[in-house]
Amino acid sequence: MRRFLRRHQPPACRFTPWKAAFGAMIAMGICALMAQLVGEPLLVAPLAASAVLVFAAHESPMAQPANVIGGHLLSTAAALAVAEVLPQSWWAMALAVGLAIALMTLTRLTHPPAGADALVVSALHPGWGYLLFPIAFGAVLLVLAATVVHRLVPSRRPYPLPVEESGGT
Fold first, then answer.
1. What is the full per-residue pLDDT of the chain (169 aa) written as tens digits?
2. Count of domains in the chain?
3. Is residue 158 part of a domain?
4. Does residue 72 contact residue 117 with C-beta atoms inside 8 Å?
């Protein structure tokens, strides 16, 4: 039973939780305000889950800029395409999520919160404009905010992670 309850994350320095909270509040505040101005504040829900990764688990491969931006764009585009050709139903929703996961995995741009984009699109049918706002706008904003916040003192953290010479792209 202990292996199920073991925490695998190393302890954070005492400032890290507050920097993460600050960054998330600023970035999500901007996204939520813009979404509210266009009358759809819940459209940014998947980006809130991304904020957890980029600010509090930024060393995860799935929190890196390519994954955040690419994962959201792929998942949203897949769901929008499914919504174009299939009626709104539980199986179309399941297909959209499955297709989003397949595309993210194939392209090595897996970002778990982006799977929620497929659900939002399937439920609300927001149209292709959703791909640009709030998705592209919000994903880029989160990455930019995380880049700045993780460079703040104290406890500067590398974000995005440096590219390894022997690794791929």
1. 777 787 776 667 788 889 999 999 999 999 989 888 888 766 788 999 999 999 999 999 999 999 999 999 999 999 999 999 999 999 999 999 999 999 999 999 999 999 999 999 999 999 999 999 899 999 999 999 999 999 987 778 889 998 875 455 5
2. 1
3. no
4. yes
Residue 162 lies in a domain: no
Domain of residue 65 covers: 15-149
Q: What is the pTM of this model?
A: 0.89
Q: Does 136 map to a domain?
A: yes
Instruction: Report yes or no: 118 and 44 within 8 Å, Cβ to Cβ.
Output: no
CA-based R_g, the chain, Å:
17
DSSP-derived secondary structure letter, 162:
P
| CA–CA gap between residue 31 and residue 41 (Å, rounded) | 9
Q: Using CB atoms within 10 A of its CB, is residue 59 exposed (0-12), middle (13-18) or buried (19+)?
A: middle
What is the separation of C-alpha 105 from the centre of its chain, rounded to a whole number of angstroms? 15
